[in-house]
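We modelled the chain as a single entity of 196 amino acids. Its sequence is:
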Amino acid sequence: MKVLLLLTVLLSGVLAITAAAVEAVKPAEAPVEPQMENQVVEVEVEAVPEAVPLEGEPQPAGEVAAPVQGRFICPSGWVGYKDGCYLFVSSGRTWNSAADYCKSLGASLPSVSNVFDYSFLQDLTMRSGQTVSWIGGFYFQTWRWLDQSPFSYSNWGTVNTVSRYQCMYVQTRAGWSNHSCGNGWPFICVKKTGNC
């Protein structure tokens, strides 16, 4: 009977954690402490960061993320994904200007290593009401990522000639493409958790 009771309590804790993550509610204020038959069973509930609006410029204050139970909290205006914090910047800039802006924040235009990373960037762009955004791919003798990560994943929707179109951008309807680096488009910055 006690084993069944304990399993019920643990299952309730897991369901509470799942519900909190799905609903993106404010972080839990304290662990849940159910009491049964004069026994106290503690179920640890992980804090879930509050949802942050995607639009607008980053706030200079609060740029340091604090680790929480082995996780991290992104600065205000940034969105957490895997091991980084991502910022969608709506103001149109050239690719070089976007790269410089991200660098001034201790960030970089993002690289993409798999379909999940690309889907995240695509969704971030769509949720911000845009159809394209600069990412960190560029052509110099071959395709490369600005952060120097390996260019081992490809997701081309369209490919334009690299003699004129040497900078890469996200398309919300299809894979990425390349265009003139001088276009003034929105862009995405990423800080890895060690830099948040």
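As a brief sanity check on the tokenised model: The two ends are 47 Å apart (CA to CA). Helices lie at 2-23, 95-104, 115-127.
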